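TASK: fixed-backbone design
INPUT:
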C-alpha cells in the first residue's frame, strides 16, 4: 500500500488530548537525529510533511497524521541528545510510556536507528521494553546510502547482534534513494491490517 493521502491531525502533549481510539496506529520512535522525519516524509512522498531539523528535540509532542483515512502515523519525540530541560524530557518520557502502554489501537512501533552507528543502550532498552510488554515493533536502520554495500551489511549485522534481532526482523532504509521503502510500506500495511 502507498501512504500518500496524509494530513496533520494534532500534536498531543497530554493523554487527555489523544484522539478517540478508532483507526489503527503506527508509532515512529528513535533517538534524536536518526532520520525519523525524513523516513516518514519519504514514506508519504512529501518533502516537508514532517518537519526535518538539524536541531535535536524539534518534535515535542505526539504528532498524529491521518493517512489514507485508514491509519494514524504517530511521530514520537526523539530520545537521547535533545537539548531540553530535564523536566521536559521526563514529561515526554512519561507521555510516551503511557501512550505505548495503554493505546489499544497501537499496532506497531517503528524503532529507527542510524545504520552508521553501533548499538545504543537507549535503543536496546526500548526494544527490550517493547518485547516485555508484547508491543509489536519493526526495527529500521536508516541512512544506508551513506555506507558502501560491504559496510552496510557489516554494520547491520553488528546492530542485529546488539539488539538481539535477526536480519529478517528489520529493514535497511534510505530516505535519499528509497532503499527499503517498498518493504516498509508492505510491513506497515500488514501491521495495520489494511490493503
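OUTPUT:
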Amino acid at each position: 500500500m502507498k501512504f500518500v493521502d496524509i494530513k496533520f491531525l494534532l500534536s498531543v502533549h497530554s493523554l487527555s488530548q489523544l484522539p478517540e481510539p478508532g483507526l489503527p496506529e503506527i508509532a515512529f520512535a528513535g533517538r534524536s537525529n536518526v532520520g525519523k522525519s525524513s523516513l516518514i516524509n519519504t514514506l508519504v512522498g512529501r518533502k516537508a510533511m514532517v518537519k526535518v531539523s538539524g536541531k535535536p528535540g524539534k518534535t515535542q509532542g505526539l504528532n498524529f497524521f491521518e493517512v489514507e483515512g485508514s491509519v494514524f502515523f504517530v511521530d514520537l519525540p526523539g530520545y537521547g541528545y535533545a537539548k531540553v530541560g530535564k523536566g521536559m524530557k521526563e514529561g515526554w518520557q512519561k507521555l510516551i510510556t503511557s501512550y505505548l502502554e495503554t493505546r489499544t489501537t497501537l499496532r506497531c512501533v517503528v524503532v529507527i536507528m542510524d545504520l552508521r552507528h553501533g548499538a545504543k543502550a537507549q535503543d536496546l532498552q526500548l526494544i527490550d521494553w517493547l518485547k516485555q510488554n508484547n508491543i509489536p515493533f519493526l526495527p529500521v536502520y536508516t541512512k544506508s546510502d551513506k555506507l558502501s554495500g560491504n559496510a552496510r551489511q557489516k554494520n547491520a549485522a553488528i546492530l542485529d547482534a546488539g539488539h538481539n534481532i535477526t536480519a529478517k526482523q528489520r529493514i535497511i532504509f534510505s530516505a535519499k534513494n528509497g532503499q527499503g521503502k517498498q518493504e516498509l510500506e508492505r510491513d506497515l500495511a500488514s501491521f495495520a491490517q489494511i490493503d
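COMMENT: The mean pLDDT is 89.
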